[in-house]
Structure prediction request, 367 residues.
Amino acid sequence: MLILSKKYTTWSLERIARHIAYWTFWWLFYTVVNAGLYENGSYSPWFLFELHILPLKLSITYFTIYFLFPRYAKDKQYPIFFIWVIGLVVIGGFIFRAIEIYYHSDTDLAAKVYLNKTYFTEFLSFKIVYKALDLLFVVALVLLIKFIQRQIDQERRTKTLITQNLQTELNYLKHQLQPHFLFNTLNNLYGLIITKDENAGELVLKLSEILSYMLYDSNDTEISLEKELACLSNYIELEKLRYGDELTITYTVKGSPQRHKIAPLILISFVENAFKHGPSDELVNSWITISADIEEDSFRFVVENSLDKGQTGKEKKDSRVVSGIGLSNVEKRLELIYGEDFSLNITQEDTYKVELTIQKHELSYSG
Prediction:
């Protein structure tokens, strides 16, 4: 399978040696078979005879796989290609038969095989069909190998293209999220500055740490879960500075995140959405509860926030339906990275709750 999957662009010594070994095998194979059928073990006549036939087999085979196959397989013109192949092996069958009669006419073997038969009658015998089928078998075997190599190469290129498209889309979604988050945070900072809040400096420090994570640490498909949770913690601290005692925030982490990885900037969108819809002037006590549960077989992340009366009483949302730019983007990223190996449940009843679970085999280990 390694040879089939290997792509050759030049005729290296290894490639030439492999071709020589391949044709040597068939040369010896037909010598042994024919000697056993017609000569009871006398190999020398058939050894030389197969040596005369070998250039014919080589010519038809290499013309087929290096000229006809690339030309017609590229546009999937297989009917024309197979007509060409059949035509070649039929013509080759006549040449094969002519070589056979010419070679055996000057040997003692000719007297045994062609006794009391004219050359013309023998030439036009059904044996031409056998010779054509012989050539077809040799060509078809090499052609099969070439076809498998082409399919492997196409699959490799397709996978590369899918990976490139996936990375492009992930980068697009991630970069679309960053301005959205930055816009909201700068609004928070502006509010603290105009009120001359002493916490504005601490907010700038937290913001710089978050932006450093977004710009430099989150460029990979997966990032350390510890870093993702640290970024999340900084964001929560920013919001605490903004809301103060008006909002009760509970954030807990259970388990050790050091050895786990996760897609970057996944969790922050759910938390950002909770802060967007959770705090309300109509509620006496607004609250947000955030929990991360890291286990050996899964990672579970839950965000739940209070709702005012105008937001409650709505029907339970579908488990994969989200709204807003941030949540819409994060759902697409989850589907692109984890496929069906994650669950995202979003419900809105008395509270708004997001539950994300990622299975163990989608979490990478660094040690």
In short: The chain has two domains: 2-159, 197-362. The chain is about 60% helix and 15% strand. Residues 186 and 207 are 9 Å apart (CA to CA). The radius of gyration is 37 Å.
